[in-house]
Amino acid sequence: MPRIPNSKPLDSPRCDLRLPEAALRYRRTANPVLTTPQALGAINVTAWLYRDRNGVVGIQVNPNVTIAELARVYGPAATPDAEVGLHSEGLAADWFRTRPDLTVIQIFSERVPCFSMCAPMLRHYYPGVPWYYYYDSNSWRGNNGERIRRAGEILRSAYGV
Ligand SMILES: [Zn+2]
């Protein structure tokens, strides 16, 4: 059972825990499995709660890289950081842009949406939709800007994997 995520804003409605569960399920059922420390550090998964015109609720899950790219990510080369490349929130936003009949209700992303790209994009296209996350790199930086805890460790404990 995933831990309850942090929220922005702080007084948001409680996160629908089906979102982190869906993200974890995605990691567990991906091929290759994405629950290793390496994959937890390299990949960010986002899960968005939405409602269709008939009031039916669904969840859209996106990793920050496509399935085709996972093989490349898992190559012998150095592990890329999840904050580079195609961001999961951008991929999810692309998915919803082509489905305007769906209303986004909650946005869960394992890492808080990045300050430079995703945060302004989400505020613009999904104003008022609360965010939920486990890892915020800004909360885990030392006085000299160094990372004192890494996303992979935080996610491993949040998911209990
Ligand atoms: Zn981003």
What do you see in this structure?
- 32% of the residues lie in helices and 17% in strands.
- The chain is of the alpha+beta class.
- It has one domain (6-159): Cytidine Deaminase, domain 2 (3-Layer(aba) Sandwich), CATH 3.40.140.
- Mean pLDDT is 88; it is low at 76-80.
- It has a five-stranded mixed beta sheet.
- The termini are close together.
- The radius of gyration is 15 Å and the shape is globular.
- It has helices at 18-29, 37-42, 67-73, 88-97, 118-125, 151-159, and strands at 6-8, 45-51, 57-63, 103-109, 131-133.
- Bound molecules: zinc ion.
Beta-strand residue percentage: 15-25%
Query: Unreliable segments (pLDDT under 50, ≥5 consecutive)?
Result: 76-80
Described by the principal axes of the CA atoms, the overall outline is globular
The figure for the number of domains is 1
Helical segment count: 6
Average pLDDT: 88
Residues in helix, %: 25-40%
* CATH fold name: Cytidine Deaminase, domain 2
Cα radius of gyration in angstroms:
15 Å
At the first level of CATH, the class is Alpha Beta
Bound small molecules, by name, code or SMILES, are: zinc ion
**Strand arrangement in the largest pleated sheet:** 1-5-4-2-3
Distance between the termini: 10 Å
Order of helices and strands: EHHEEHHEHEH
Give the second-level CATH assignment, the architecture: 3-Layer(aba) Sandwich
Number of strands: 5
The chain-level structural class is alpha+beta
The main sheet comes to: 5 strands, mixed
